[in-house]
Amino acid sequence: MAARALIGFLALGLLTVQEAGAASPQWQNPPVSSKGVKPYFDSTSLHSQELPPPPAVDSLLDQRDVATVVAFQAVDAARRKEAGEDARWLFDRFEQAFGQGPIRGDARPALVTLLSRTLKQVGGPTFAAKAVHQRARPYQRMKLAQVCGRAADGVDDADADMRTSYPSGHAAYGWAVGLVLARVAPARAEALLSRAQTYAESRVVCGVHFPSDVEAGRQMATAVVAQLDRHAEFQRDLELAKAELTASPPAAASAPASASSTIPAPAK
Fold first, then answer.
1. Cis link prior to 249 (omega < 30° from 0)?
2. What confidence score (pLDDT) does residue 179 get?
3. Cβ of 33: how many Cβ atoms within 10 Å?
4. How many angstroms separate the first and last alpha carbons of the chain?
5. For the chain, give me the number of helices (H) and strands (E)?
6. pLDDT tens, 101-112?
7. Is 203 one of the annotated active-site residues of the chain?
8. What is the pTM of this model?
9. How far apart are CA 56 and CA 69, in angstroms?
10. Known catalytic residue: 47?
11. DSSP 53
């Protein structure tokens, strides 16, 4: 019981950091406070049912993780810039793939409510898992020349003592947004899920997550959205978002995002 209380306390602390913007993207651009947004229900314990522990340090899987992070350091400047923008923002990074105009509260309030409540739902188990596993980030374990939002000499590392690499919160958020938008606009599903994949991959490009962290974020988002698919209040909000889209279609749909990159093969 005491251990469970400690985990809950740690998760609460991490969520507080998340709300402040540290190590998490701003959902809307320009930023809008999500303080009053509530999840559909408490799913904090879901991570213990869905996620295995991260690879042990120096295990074969961990060595593959490390090699892939090193390989991703060689991406071109355009991909690195895209990854840096993915690190900062969330909803507007999916607008092109969505092709239905801006994803902002002033333009699509029902849609933003649906997405925001889903992200609160995903955040609970994701940040609780971080508190349990306490995996160091790639740049905390090795010297990387390219790390998004951080000087190469390692100063200003606000996350250094928190060890919050597993699972990736950005990846969980990105996949949650992609999965929900695909339910709102099924015709755009392929572009949206491709964008979710690229958005999650950006965390490895940035040098702040290992591939297994990103995969765990995808698993967490998928499990949460699967639960929400069976939840009446979520379904109500989903129908409201669809109706909003029908009532106010965009003037002209954007082309789908083509953000994929050629990634160098990991060192053998």
1. no
2. 98
3. 9
4. 45
5. 11, 0
6. 999 999 999 999
7. yes
8. 0.84
9. 16
10. no
11. P
Residue 237 in contact with residue 255, Cβ under 8 Å? Answer: no
Given 108, 209, 218, 237, which residue is catalytic? Answer: 209
What's the mean pLDDT in 132-146? 94
213 flagged as catalytic = yes
Separation CA 263–CA 83 (nearest Å): 13
| Set 108, 170, 188, 195: catalytic member | 170
Q: Helix 109-133 vs helix 211-228: angle between axes, to the nearest 10 degrees?
A: 130
As a whole number, mean pLDDT of residues 30-51 equals 94
Kindly indicate the confidence band of residue 3, based on its pLDDT and cuts at 50, 70 and 90. Answer: very low
Q: Where are the domains of the chain?
A: 2-247
Residue 217 φ then ψ, to 5°: -65, -40
Neighbouring-strand partners of residue 46: none
**Secondary structure class of 32 (helix, strand, coil):** coil
Catalytic choice (188, 213, 218, 237): 213
| Whole-number Å distance between alpha carbons of 175 and 192 | 9
CATH architecture of 2-247: Up-down Bundle (1.20)
Q: Chain-centre distance of CA 109, in angstroms?
A: 21
Among residues 47, 188, 203, 218, the one annotated as catalytic is: 203
